[in-house]
């Protein structure tokens, strides 16, 4: 009887695991987006670069570089509602941001709701 119940349990597990399917996320925001600024100081030129990596699990990572060194990293969640993407940072230092994708130009851009360029696709 134990062998029979074990066999039935195994068949149930196999059946349930084959029936579940992870939904595929093909959102056009997936990938790496960045923006770079060049700041001039009296002694040297420093470049500041920010990078957002969006993945298909509605999560991402944000990096800030000063020159060639990373000076800030945080994770974020993202969601889309009527074409407006909301980036919800885990870090308290950063406020949530809402952006819109502009795919009309080359390269594609993320723009703040106010119309300013937020980042460009790499």
The total number of structural domains is 1
User: Strands of the largest sheet, in order across it?
Assistant: 1-2-3-4-5-6-7-8
Strand content: over 45%
CATH architecture assignment: Beta Barrel
Helicity range of the residues?
A: 10-25%
| Global outline | elongated
Spans where pLDDT lies below 50 across 5 or more residues = none
First and last CA, distance: 61 Å
Please, how many helices?
1
**Remind me, CATH topology?**
Lipocalin
CATH class wording: Mainly Beta
- If you average the pLDDT, what whole number results? 86
What's the story with the biggest beta sheet? 8 strands, antiparallel, barrel
Number of strand elements: 8
Briefly note the structural class of the backbone.
mainly beta
Order of helices and strands: HEEEEEEEE
| Rg (CA only) | 22 Å
What does this structure look like?
- The protein has one helix at residues 2-19; strands at residues 31-40, 45-54, 59-66, 69-81, 84-89, 97-102, 109-112, 117-121.
- By secondary structure, the protein is mainly beta.
- It is elongated.
- The model has no long low-confidence stretch (mean pLDDT 86).
């Amino acid at each position: 009887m134990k062998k029979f119940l074990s066999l039935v349990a195994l068949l149930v597990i196999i059946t349930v695991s084959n029936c579940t399917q992870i939904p595929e996320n093909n959102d056009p925001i997936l990938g790496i987006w960045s923006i770079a600024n060049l700041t001039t100081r009296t002694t040297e030129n420093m470049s500041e670069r920010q990078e957002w990596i969006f993945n298909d699990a509605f999560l991402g990572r944000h990096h800030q570089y000063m020159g060639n060194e990373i000076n800030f990293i945080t994770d974020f969640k993202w969601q889309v509602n009527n074409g407006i993407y909301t980036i919800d940072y885990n870090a308290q230092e950063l406020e949530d941001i809402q952006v819109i994708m502009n795919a009309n130009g080359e390269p594609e851009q993320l723009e703040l709701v106010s119309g300013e360029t937020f980042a460009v696709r790499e």
